[in-house]
Amino acid sequence: MATTTKPAALDPRDFLAIDALLDDDERAIRDTVRRFVRERVVPEVGEWFEQGILPRELAKELAQLGLFGMHLEGYGLPGASSVMYGLTCMELEAGDAGIRSLVSVQGSLAMYAIWRWGTEEQKQRWLPPMHEGDAIGCFGLTEPDAGSDPGAMRTSARRDGSDWVLNGAKMWITNGSIADVAVVWARTDEGHINGFLVERGMPGFEAPEMHHKISLRASVTSELLLKDVRVPEESRFPEVSSLRGPLSCLSEARYGIVWGSVGAGRACFESALDYAKERIVFGKPIAGYQLTQQKLAEMALEVNRGTLVALHLGRKKDEGTLRPEHVSMGQMGNVRGALEVARTARTILGGNGITLEYPVIRHMNNLESVFTYEGTDDIHTLILGQAITGLSAFN
Ligand code: TGC
Ligand code: FAD
Predict the structure, then answer these.
(1) Is residue 279 part of a domain?
(2) Residues having CB within 6 Å of any atom of ligand 1
(3) Residue 115 sits in which domain range?
(4) Is 0.90 surpassed by the pTM of this model?
(5) How wide is the angle at C-alpha 283 spanned by C-alphas 280 and 284, nearest 5°?
């Protein structure tokens, strides 16, 4: 039986006309990053993922677009709005979560930590070259035995004259092996949490790359090994004495994930929609079957809902009313939604859904990392539980 087709009255790629909620500057940065991702990332990222590499020169290209620390002000940084930064994360992750991670860790974790907690000298020394992509940063919080509970960290900082001596190990550190400067969080003899800037090549400091990942393969993930690493007092963040230091940085990076995850989901939805309209099974496009339409409708719902949540949180961040618990709700809901979209998209592609010829399984695998880092889904659930009940389930 022939399928009757009607012209789509609504744009399936912007069903709720969310584009109209953006201003010209926001659309301009979104379109610039989208073009870069389509031209530079999409054609090659499947290969990078397969090989488990991220070309180092990509960092310089992202810097030329002004994306590193784009939402920070002063020190030659662009001072873009939170919504502009969010849209950037969305477009980057529509390419690959590994590219968004590179930008997130550089701008929202390493640069933000220095910008928020560093001394004037530390800011002047590191922020301009990090913005230019001439220096790469990483953020070392997680340890082999302290992930969800960073308060259990064992990395130690012992005062020795005018220096500090660091010992310990960090694990799962994005950008670690390519970083020129590592923000390392450690516990002092007095039990305080302090942040230190550890530079590549310092005696006793190594950053071996971690291999055998089947998620976030187009991203460098490393250990940080510190054996009697001597750093001067000038490399310490003077104002940090508790977990508030590192956790304040996490809020920044989690905000980027709220947007980025929707980008990954959107890419999967668009891939599945294109495929469903062309793939003929039992004599007609699978898009014409009710089961497929239900899948596509639910995917469109998640992508539109996630985009609206991200935009709402972005507007709140720009007006100064965003709270960490809002970000946890955004990350939890949007990452769950994106993972569901990716898994559903994979079914629509049938056997082709498991190959890197299409972006879907790459995003699906990446989203397993996104579901885990910057606080697992469980941790965000418990942060919300605490905010709603006033009772902490952590301790
Ligand atoms: P708790 O007692 O609740 O808090 C300790 C201090 O921190 C303050 N605080 C925050 N400040 C700013 N932003 C936030 N989101 C904050 N959350 C808490 C809090 O007010 C307190 O301040 P003060 O002044 O009283 O000292 O701490 P807790 O030990 O009970 O832990 C709470 C918990 C479990 C929520 C927290 O530890 C947590 O979030 N765990 C998850 C760890 C995590 O997300 N790790 C991420 C590592 S980085 C990463 O994954 C990068 S991936 C990047 C990529 O590649 O894209
Ligand atoms: P665990 O904390 O051991 O958790 C194991 C399981 O227990 C999880 O399911 C968790 O949800 C659950 N759980 C924990 N607490 C509770 C509870 N109270 N109740 C019930 N269940 C609970 N870290 C950095 O510092 N810097 C980085 O740049 C960085 N990049 C990363 C990149 C990748 C690709 C990955 C995978 C991780 C990265 N991480 C980074 C680490 C990441 O933040 C941690 O993996 C994450 O916080 C979880 O810690 P964990 O792996 O030790 O799991």
Answers:
(1) yes
(2) 101, 104-105, 139, 141-142, 148, 150-151, 174, 242-244, 247-248, 250-251, 253, 324, 373-375, 379, 383, 394
(3) 13-131
(4) yes
(5) 55
Which of 306, 296, 299, 256 lies closest to 276, judged by CA? 296
pLDDT tens across 258-297, in order? 999 999 999 999 999 999 999 999 999 999 999 999 999 9
* pLDDT tens per residue, range 349-368: 999 999 999 999 999 999 99
- Do residue 285 and residue 154 come from a single domain? no
| Active site residues per annotation | 374
Closest protein CA for atom 9 of ligand 1: 244
Q: Which ligand is nearest to the CA of 207?
A: 2
Domain count, the chain: 3
Examine the pLDDT at 211 and tell me if it is beyond 60. Answer: yes
**Ligand 1 atom closest to residue 141's alpha carbon, by position in its atom list:** 47
pLDDT tens track for 134-149: 999 999 999 999 999 9
Is residue 141 within 6 Å of ligand 2 at its C-beta? yes
Query: How many angstroms separate the alpha carbon of residue 148 from the centre of ligand 2?
Result: 5
- Given 182, 202, 235, the domain boundary residue is 235
Q: How many CA atoms lie within 13 A of 247 on its CB side?
A: 17
Phi, psi of 164 (to 5 degrees): -125, 145
Cβ contacts of 158 within 8 Å, gap of 6 or more: 164, 165, 167, 188, 189
Please report the atom of ligand 2 found closest to the CA of residue 138. Answer: 28
